Amino acid sequence: MRTALVIGTGLIGTSAALALASRGVTVHLADHDPGQARTAAALGAGTDEAPEGPVDLCIVAVPPAHVAAQLADAMRRGLARAYIDVASVKGGPRRELEEMGLDLTPYIGTHPMSGRERSGPLAADADLFEGRPWVLTPTRDTDTEVLNLALELVALCRAVPVVMDADAHDRAVALVSHMPHLVSSMVAARLEHAEEAAVRLCGQGIRDVTRIAASDPRMWIDILSANPGPVADLLSAVAGDLEETVQSLRSLQSSDDAKRREGVDGVETMLRRGNAGQSRVPGKHGAAPAAYEIVAVLISDQPGELARIFADAGAAGVNIEDVRIEHATGQQAGFVQLMVQPAQAPKLAAALRERGWAMRP
């Protein structure tokens, strides 16, 4: 791949353009908002000048509702040898293109499973896709050269290719992305009018659950509008679980011992189902999740503190498998949770104490 055209210079489009440009590909940028394309170009993502002829790959990075129309326009104008989109829904756009009677041999639907709460070119990052799954949904009509160009794009972005059927992809992302986003928003909505005294008690648990609720609602309306059926089916199942759990909790208020036992059993069943589901979430490098030991260290909110604690862990010969920061409410301090292999935890704790760090018991 020597040349590419990115249509849509938001977070995903600009991040892909930055990755390609950094690896020597000549990238042309286009957007319905020329100012946004100029911003992406100023960041080093390419040029906002139109290509003089067909490019090797056209990447359509627009909201799902506009993917088919944008692809059809690009294909009819012969802008590239191959065309992909990066929308989070795959079945709908493909069917729209089929209904238009277009030759789909130069097209393949794709979806990089990566993003963040912020949107737009200023939020873009050339490393956004590194190590993340990038779904490819070829059909029997997809030309081999087109598939190879898509795989080259994934490799240049340092992502991991995953081949799926388009409709299977849509059901999967409804489960692991779209439905959880709505549930996160519903939990966060409970905080909107909560008393300030209650909100000040927010800890890491509520921060984890509500983090993705900070995303742009306009973007999510586009996504959910393109995949409503599978998401509604999943939310209906969650609603059933919620109703059973509510009844179990009501039973715990009963003065009848048998009723209370039913309540305990119901709540425990739900919690254990949650344990079983969470244990299936892939861990580091996509492997089965490991049982790490947490070493919690008090850390002040000062420049260089994280670097210093990582350096001290490295000097102790301990590899940090994962890390989280628990911020203290109203204080310029917090706890950094260093996740390590269980056998390494005592060694790390002892080494950090020797270097003056305060540990949480």
TrEMBL record:
According to the record, the signal peptide region is 1-19
Please give the PROSITE patterns that the UniProt record associates with this protein.
ACT, PDH_ADH
Keywords of the record: Amino-acid biosynthesis, Aromatic amino acid biosynthesis, NAD, Oxidoreductase, Signal, Tyrosine biosynthesis
* Molecular functions per Gene Ontology: prephenate dehydrogenase (NAD+) activity
Q: Which reaction does it catalyse?
A: prephenate + NAD(+) = 3-(4-hydroxyphenyl)pyruvate + CO2 + NADH
Q: Which Gene3D superfamilies match?
A: 6-phosphogluconate dehydrogenase C-terminal like domain, NAD(P)-binding Rossmann-like Domain
Q: Which InterPro entries match?
A: 6-PGluconate_DH-like_C_sf, ACT-like_dom_sf, ACT_dom, NAD(P)-bd_dom_sf, PDH_C, PDH_N, Preph/Arog_dehydrog, Prephen_DH
The record's top EC class is oxidoreductase
**Would you say which domain of life the source belongs to?**
Bacteria
Q: In which pathway does it act?
A: Amino-acid biosynthesis; L-tyrosine biosynthesis; (4-hydroxyphenyl)pyruvate from prephenate (NAD(+) route): step 1/1
Report domain ACT positions: 294-361
Boundaries of every Prephenate/arogenate dehydrogenase domain copy: 2-283
Report the EC number(s), separated by commas if there are several.
1.3.1.12
Q: Tell me which family the UniProt entry assigns to this protein.
A: Belongs to the prephenate/arogenate dehydrogenase family.
Spell out the NCBIfam families in the cross-references.
PRK06545.2-1, PRK06545.2-3, PRK06545.2-4
Protein name as annotated? Prephenate dehydrogenase
**What does the record give as the organism's lineage?**
Bacteria, Bacillati, Actinomycetota, Actinomycetes, Kitasatosporales
